[in-house]
């Protein structure tokens, strides 16, 4: 591991120390590594549609809004190959939160997310992607060997 030195003004250090406490980081280095990794990955994912990803799409919607639930269901079925699973939470009598686990080519996942987030009535839409490498393997899982894929998060 390589060491680097950075200079920060006192106010930024104070805010950073508070950040460390709030998130229970044991040391500054781990927090800075996470911040750099997150920033670099977000930048890479924003610039490129190449490769595969896993992640989540989260949003809030009013289930009583005219035809919205039907339009959302249609978007999920239209993109069934990247929409893996959905957690649906009733927030109150009309508002629902959904978190969708997504998996697939980055371009297709972004298309699905845009099809959902841009629906009139969808609020607080957020897509969180993790770049992965997909590896086709053939090996045993207790029985006979079979071919399947493994998804490995990139470091």
TrEMBL record:
SUPFAM superfamilies linked: ACT-like (SSF55021), Ribbon-helix-helix (SSF47598)
Entry cofactors: Ni(2+)
Pfam families the UniProt entry points to: NikR_C, RHH_1
Residues reported to bind Ni(2+): 77, 88, 90, 96
Domain Ribbon-helix-helix protein CopG: 2-41
Keywords assigned: DNA-binding, Metal-binding, Nickel, Transcription, Transcription regulation
Function: Transcriptional regulator.
The protein's name: Putative nickel-responsive regulator
Gene that this polypeptide is encoded by: nikR
């Amino acid at each position: 591991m390589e060491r680097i030195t950075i200079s920060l003004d006192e106010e930024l250090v104070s805010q950073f120390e508070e950040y460390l406490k709030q998130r229970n980081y044991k040391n500054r280095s781990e927090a800075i590594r996470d911040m750099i990794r997150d920033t670099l990955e977000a930048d890479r994912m924003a610039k490129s549609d190449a490769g595969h990803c896993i992640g989540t799409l989260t949003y809030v919607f009013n289930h009583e809004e005219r035809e919205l639930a039907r339009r959302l269901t249609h978007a999920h079925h239209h993109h069934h190959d990247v929409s893996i699973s959905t957690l649906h939470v009733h927030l109150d009598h009309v508002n629902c939160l959904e978190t969708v686990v997504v998996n697939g080519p980055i371009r297709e996942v972004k298309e699905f997310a845009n099809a959902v987030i841009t629906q009139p009535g969808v609020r607080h839409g957020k897509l969180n992607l993790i770049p992965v490498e997909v590896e086709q393997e053939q090996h045993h899982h207790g029985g006979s060997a079979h071919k399947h894929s493994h998804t490995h998060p990139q470091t």
